[in-house]
TrEMBL record:
One of its GO terms (cellular component) is plasma membrane. It comes from Roseococcus suduntuyensis. The keyword Transmembrane helix applies. The keyword Ribosomal protein does not apply. InterPro entries: Cell_Envelope_Assoc, DUF218, Rossmann-like_a/b/a_fold. Pfam families: DUF218. Keywords: Membrane, Transmembrane, Transmembrane helix. This is Uncharacterized SAM-binding protein YcdF (DUF218 family). The chain crosses the membrane at residues 12-35, 42-65. GO terms for biological process: Gram-negative-bacterium-type cell wall biogenesis; peptidoglycan metabolic process.
Length: 264
């Protein structure tokens, strides 16, 4: 069942992602208009409307802010027993091709792991990530993370890698089973701020008593700088936020999260 749901989710998002679907609507509408079907103007206008809204309004920031503000970052606890870093920040295929660890826009997840390891030397550092691809390559995210952390001096028995998970639900379940945290321990969950609501809901459902430690913010509160990022960035930002809302709904329907929109 897990394999089926994973495949369905990947195929669904391949076509349903807003930027791709909007482009499909534009092409469909233009094709219908060329064929002298006047109703083609509606899908064309709807698709163009998505791009115009992202270009001329702070839509991307508006839908991202509630996600990023949901779990404020707390003061660093005096004692930390463990830190869980979610995958999604490394590029396996590029790492294989070039031979050095490659990171993407969520790189703060990895740098924060190193910073927390130095600030709290008693903490276990747990990276969780296999491959989110339908056809995975030879390297898992955990393989890339192991090489990166070693190059930064973060290695040894305190560093643990989980390399089988394909999504956030499996991150939570498989890592909980591997680490087996005990009641009373203090654990931090490191992931992108916009991904934190779904992650916290999922980890709670899996039995974790864990504290949100968000990184990789893409918005500033109060409306400052909403139009500063280029149009291409805002398209990606809006699409990522839409993906999180869809993921929250899907996980809630599947019983994989503790609430529809988890809160502190």
């Amino acid at each position: 069942m897990e394999d089926f749901l994973f495949t369905v989710s990947k195929l669904f998002w391949l076509f349903a992602r807003p930027n791709t679907f909007a482009l499909f609507l534009v092409c469909l509408g233009v094709g219908l208009l060329i064929a002298r079907r006047r109703f083609g103007r509606w899908p064309a206008l709807l698709g163009l409307g998505w791009y115009v809204a992202v270009l001329l309004t702070p839509l991307a920031a508006w839908i991202t802010l509630p996600l990023e503000n949901r779990f404020p970052r707390p003061e660093l606890p005096t004692r930390v027993d463990g830190v869980v870093i979610l995958g999604g920040a490394v590029e396996q295929a590029l790492t294989e091709a070039r031979g050095i660890p490659a990171l993407n826009g969520a790189a703060e997840r990895m740098t924060e792991a190193v910073a927390l390891a130095r600030l709290r030397p008693e903490a276990r550092i747990v990276f969780t990530g296999g491959s989110a691809a339908l056809a995975p390559g030879q390297m898992s995210e955990a393989d890339v993370a192991r090489a990166l952390f070693a190059s930064l001096g973060l290695e040894g028995e305190r560093v643990i890698f989980e390399g089988r998970s394909r999504n956030t639900w499996e991150n939570a379940e498989l890592t909980h089973a591997q680490v087996n945290p005990t009641p009373g321990e203090t654990w931090l969950l490191v992931t992108s701020a916009s991904h934190m609501p779904r992650s916290m809901g999922t980890f709670r459902r899996a039995g974790w008593d864990i504290t949100a430690w968000p990184v990789n913010y893409s918005t500033r509160p109060g409306g400052a700088g909403w139009f500063d990022p280029p149009f291409s960035f805002r398209l990606g930002q809006a699409e990522w936020a839409a993906r999180e809302y869809v993921g929250l709904l899907a996980y809630w329907l599947l019983g994989r999260t503790s609430a529809l929109f988890p809160a502190p």
